[in-house]
Amino acid sequence: MLGVRMDKWLWAARFFKTRSLAARACDLGRIQWNKQPAKPAREVHVGDLLNIRTEAGDFEVEVLLLSEVRGPATVAQTLYRETESGRELRLKAAQERKASFVFSPAPQGRPSKRDRRKIHQFRGEK
Asked: b/e map of 79-94 (b: 16 or more CB within 10 Å)?
């Protein structure tokens, strides 16, 4: 096997749950292939560098193996190797997200009638 479609490989490597989600990410420019925007039909080869932006974070990976079938997660993790710089950036961003939650506590239950009036007044509503 010389190459695999980008959307198939992303799906097989378990970055996306479906091929259509992987193709959509390519169309939206969330996938970079060797520092260039990637289309879903672009062929991935061993040794390519991919920058992948997902809800889980930004991944910078090197393609090690090719696969067209989606297997268990342990097999999917052997398809790529995350670069050290990409891993550090992703972990740093995760720590920043965790830290931001500490400073913005969630409200305790529903707002009271008085609180709702203040919210409406702040928004400029009736």
From this structure: bbeeeeebeeebeeee
